[in-house]
Design goal:
The protein is of the alpha+beta class. 35% of the residues lie in helices and 24% in strands. The strands form 3 sheets. The chain has a 7-stranded mixed beta sheet, with helices on both faces. The protein has a 5-stranded mixed beta sheet with strand order 11-10-12-14-13, with helices on both faces.
Amino acid sequence: MSDIDLANIEAFCAELAEGGKAISMRYFRQKTAFEQKEDLSPVTIADQSIEAYMRERIHAAFPDHGIVGEEMEAEEGGRYTWYIDPIDGTKSFISGMPFYGLLAALRDTEEDRTVFGMIDIPAIGERWTGTGDAARFNGAPAKVSACTALADAQIYTTSQDIFSDGDWQVYDRISRAARFRRFGGDCYIYGLLASGYIDLVIETSLKTFDFMALMPIIEGAGGIITDWEGRALTPQSDGRVVAAATRALLDEVLDMINGPGLARARQA
């Protein structure tokens, strides 16, 4: 088993979150300028400053740990690697929407397991943490809903724009079979799933620093998060993610995703 002290990791991540919040709130709703990266996603001085701060703190506290982040080159380390996203939801941040988040996760590379994750929503003071065995929201236990059927599920995704044409056909078909569907939220919607307010999230195009922090939170709250084939998420995953409150709900969705009709749509 991992020899890391998770209580210390949680306290350290709380410090990262508070420091990141102090930076992001200096720029939030200040009409911050932004640039487009090669993948056409936006980046601001807030993204860059927060990641620089997080890396500095990780280097000081855990000099032998690796770091994978959104804005800077990956740094190799020993047994443990941090996955960090200084502002998950930069478009939300730029446009004044308060549901952007700071993500931090610690992965044990020997056990190939993410041992701790944090979703921090600085503008509204909400935070989820998880170890895979338990999850908490602002210090209190977090638990997913008991939803077992797609017809009863509340489903979210961040934006239609993250899907290819074929993958959008998959999401559109599944979400129209749900009780209702909504859009927007970035990492925030995974926290809402962990707390039982929504039941299902389906997305594509996620990077490792987007989903690593989500895994131990969703799983710790009793939910399940996999790729579209039902496999565990790893650094080699293709960015297609489905998170569900229950195994029965996940299995129903995976059967639809990988059934003949939608499988053909994905390949089109």
